[in-house]
Amino acid sequence: MKKVDMIVKAPHFYAMDGDGVGYRTGVVLVVDGGKIVEFCDAEKADKEYKADEVLSLDHHAVLPGFIDGHMHAQLNILRGLAQDTNNWMMYGLQPFNNAITTEDGQAGSYVAFIEAVKAGTTTLGAQESELDSVATFLGKIGARGNLTLSFRAAKHRVYHPGELYEFDDAMGEAGLKENIRLYDKWHDKGNVKILFGPQGPDFISPDMLIRTQKAVKERKTKLHLHTQQGDRETYQIVQRYGKRPIAFLQDINLLDESLIAIHLTDCDDDEARTVARSGASMVVNPGSIGIIDGVVCPSVVFQEEGGYVALGSDQAPGNNCHNIINEMKNVCLFNKIKYANPEVMPAWKALRMATIEGAKAVGIGDLVGSLEPGKQADFIAVDLNFPSMLPVYTHPMRNIVPNLVYSARGEEVSHSVVAGQVIMRNRKLVNIDEREYLDAVKDRPDAIGRGAEKEFYEIDGTNAQFMREGKL
């Protein structure tokens, strides 16, 4: 008999191979060396394999771990402070963002990662201003990181509508240099990959964008870029360069397969098609952009043009959670409403965006996203005995995928495995004491709030008015 690390037994598997969801039953999953060996029937497994662990999941569905293609985890320290307001970035977020310390952001990020992992995310696409602590923590918790340094040349301050950003090119230079250092230190170390991430084409010079793309291609990684993310960006680019962002990026040859375009909030359908045809991919963040902009981004058009689209949770000040199950429901619901068609964006398509298509979109489809021989053994188990998943039908149709997308909340995820290692078992993270990290953020809001208060009320945005009126 061949000795292997793990045999997984469950009544339902969703491998996400092929063009659908790859449903299998009556089989077990064999894992060894952190990778998937095969699906086979239980009788064959008993005869041919001896496992160090048999993971028996008697009332569960097993599927690939979710991919969060874009998140700002450090902003989690400001959860719930910037929604229901226009000019979200400058008038909603910036007064609070100006008041946080590096340590505040780190503490917030750990809570965001805990939340995400416990809701089934195994690959975390964090774009942060500091990555050493992020990579270290993800190594500790055991999750996979697809990490991007956010850097910019635009000075950090509140800009009013119509005001062009003030650039400090030395700050952009330092950011690119730091991104290269992080790549050299962390890329392909353990479960971490490093991408390059100027905050957006409006926040940095064309020369710096081109030089960053050159660094990306030399290192065979990806350019993770907020792209036409709102009318604010469009205004900045039009005023500086006389054209809309997609046309501008096309002119400087930034649209190609190395680009992961984040949001496309202010793109019309033709612009979205242009990006998809270039070979670039997209990350759509339906909950965040719905809340902060009231917009449904053109992911359907992008997919129709042949492009890969991942889901992202973005940031908690304006989205309020890091939960890809929530984003699956949002992307379905919002597009059904947008197109007034209940057949647009079915549940199975959203599940593919959270798994195999999302993995392809962020450049790791050869490693994860589906349960196929040779791929990394990243998978989760969903407990079908939760009220939100009951009753379970298997004929004449299966209802597990619709219930996961439209009914689940995240607490149904009982187990999480990354590279063959169990990182959550029966809802308990096995490598850290999560209470330690949750408690560490509780005393921080007082100092942050006092630091932001003057600017918050001087700006007198929607939420300041709500406070005065006793509505918060």
What does this entry look like structurally?
This protein has 472 residues and is of the alpha/beta class. It has two domains: 2-64 and 370-429, Urease, subunit C, domain 1 (Roll); 66-361, Metal-dependent hydrolases (TIM Barrel). It contains 18 helices and 19 strands. The chain has helices spanning 42-48, 88-97, 102-118, 132-141, 169-186, 206-219, 231-241, 245-251, 269-277, 286-293, 299-304, 324-339, 347-354, 356-361, 400-406, 434-439, 445-459, 462-468; strands spanning 2-9, 12-14, 23-24, 28-32, 35-40, 49-56, 60-64, 66-71, 121-128, 144-151, 192-198, 223-227, 259-263, 281-284, 309-311, 379-383, 413-418, 421-425, 428-429. The strands form four sheets. A seven-stranded mixed sheet has the order 3-2-7-16-17-18-19, covered by helices on one side. Helix 5 (169-186) links the parallel strand 10 (144-151) and strand 11. The chain is globular, with a radius of gyration of 22 Å. The N and C termini lie far apart (64 Å).
Shape: globular
Q: Which secondary-structure class do the elements indicate?
A: alpha/beta
Q: CATH homologous superfamily name of the largest domain?
A: Metal-dependent hydrolases
Please identify the top-level CATH class of the largest domain: Alpha Beta
Tally of helical runs: 18
Strand-residue fraction?
A: 15-25%
What is the subunit arrangement here? single chain
Helix content: 25-40%
| Uncertain segments | none
Distance between the termini: 64 Å
Strands side by side in the biggest sheet = 3-2-7-16-17-18-19
Gyration radius, rounded: 22 Å
- Looking at the overall shape, the CATH architecture of the largest domain is Alpha-Beta Barrel
CATH topology of the largest domain: TIM Barrel
- Please indicate the count of domains: 2
Largest sheet: 7 strands, mixed
Tally of DSSP β-strands: 19
